[in-house]
Design brief:
The protein is mainly alpha-helical and 124 residues long. Helices cover 61% and strands 0% of the residues.
């Protein structure tokens, strides 16, 4: 479990599940559009895997936006604004990686984010 990021959960998805839900898995990485597959594809393990990672990315985006909100405060706010921007860019890069992974029909955990998505319990 130390190197959980290299685990491929591909074997838990059927080819039918992947082909029927690929588009919904891609939507999971587009910020609030994660709610569409969350509510419509509860029976798909492939979609659930990507929805969990999508929710973690939504939380990262939100943290970045909150940090940028304090940008008006001299010095400290400027630093938090820069950090918030970097956090949003980081989440954007991970979203692109997730979209590519979902489009390929793969179930690879995202770097850093993958281990946290496993702890999400409200996606069942």
């Amino acid at each position: 479990m130390a190197d959980n990021e290299n685990v491929n959960v591909q074997e838990t998805f059927t080819e039918e599940d992947i082909s029927n839900n690929r588009f919904m898995a891609i939507l999971a990485y587009l910020f609030l559009l994660v709610l569409i597959p969350f509510f419509t594809r509860k029976d798909s393990p492939f979609t659930k895997f990507h929805v969990k990672q999508g929710f973690v990315l939504v939380f990262i985006y939100a943290a970045g936006v909150v940090l940028q909100f304090f940008d008006f405060i001299p010095i400290l706010g400027w630093i938090t604004g820069i950090v918030g921007g970097a956090v949003c860019v980081f989440a954007g890069v991970l979203s692109i990686i997730g979209i590519v992974t979902a489009a390929r029909g793969q179930g690879k955990p995202l770097p850093i984010v993958g281990k946290y998505s496993e702890k999400i319990t409200f996606v069942k």
